[in-house]
Write a structure and sequence with these properties.
Strand content: 5-15%
Strand order of the largest sheet: 3-2-1-4
Oligomer: single chain
Number of domains: 2
Helix content: 40-55%
Structural class: alpha/beta
Shape: globular
């Protein structure tokens, strides 16, 4: 592929290649986001598709567009690709949606990926890797602990990659995922303490899909019962207001009675702030 010009990356791509080669046969938790896509592409380049199995966990918390893009990327890049269904909604500890929800989600993911990894590479098995980068270590992400406890590795962290490094190297390598908006699981739209249900996830997915069809690329629809709170980047706030009728109609059709716009704009993972506040109040 042809490298893009005018892009600076501080992460060492050769270090990542050495890291992946040293781990050996891999099962990549492949969500289609910038990080896991980068890991899947580089790993397949280094080890070959026969040694890299890219697996997408399919559940109601995965936006339909993301699953479609996983399939498209696998076809475009020649990835060895499998979809596996996970059942986190059946776990009361997950659906209760307390501060450890992500932990239980990753337990479900690893329960699906570990058996696949054990069947790889003959009797020797392979290693599960996730697209966690250095920036992720500073946020509230108990899922990383769950994955580590079950033997998963984070090669981007070991090779010293930040999110900016992933995007810069992806652009240099010609990967179309270099500027793909962050797309956390749909359960992250539900405030902690509000149960995660199939109906809630479907409403969020429908509302966000509808807004993307209107041209909004980076967004979140936060779920507050019958109220939807829309987050878009600050530069898109005026466009939401200008297209108020279309936006409101789209969200109403997803089942929400009230449609609100967060004037603070898009903030990835902002619901975690409630956990920080609760922790501080308890000191």
């Amino acid at each position: 592929m042809t490298a893009a010009r005018g892009t600076t990356a501080s992460g060492d791509l050769d270090a990542l290649r050495r890291e992946l080669a040293g781990i050996g046969p891999l099962v990549v938790a492949f969500s289609g986001g910038a990080d896991s896509s980068f890991v899947a592409w580089v790993a397949t380049e280094v080890l070959g598709a026969d040694q890299v199995h890219c697996v997408t966990a399919v559940s109601p918390s995965l936006a339909p567009e993301e699953l479609g893009d996983c399939r498209a990327l696998a076809a475009e890049w020649g990835l060895r690709f499998t979809e596996v269904h996970t059942g986190e909604l059946a776990d009361p500890a997950y659906s209760a949606n307390d501060g450890s929800r992500c932990y239980h989600c990753k337990v479900s993911l690893m329960d699906a990926l570990v058996p696949i990894s054990e069947q790889e590479n003959g009797s020797q098995g392979s290693t599960v890797v996730l697209g966690v980068n250095l920036d992720d270590l500073g946020d509230h992400r108990p899922g990383q602990q769950a994955a580590s406890e079950r033997g998963a590795l984070f090669p981007l962290v070991s090779a010293g990659f930040t999110k900016a490094d992933v995007r810069a190297w992806s652009k240099k390598l010609g990967l179309r995922t270099w500027d793909k908006p962050a797309a956390a699981c749909l359960a992250s739209r539900v405030p902690y303490g509000t149960p995660v249900t199939l109906g809630t996830l479907r409403s969020v997915a429908e509302a966000e899909s509808g807004l993307r069809s209107l041209g909004f690329r980076q967004l979140r629809v936060r779920h507050y019962g019958d109220t939807a709170r829309i987050e878009v980047p600050a530069e898109d706030l005026a466009m939401v207001v200008a297209r108020r009728d279309e936006v409101a109609g789209t969200v109403h059709r997803a089942g929400y009675r009230y449609v609100t716009l967060d004037l603070d704009g898009f903030r990835s993972g902002n619901l975690n702030a409630a956990l920080v506040a609760a922790s501080g109040a308890g000191r």
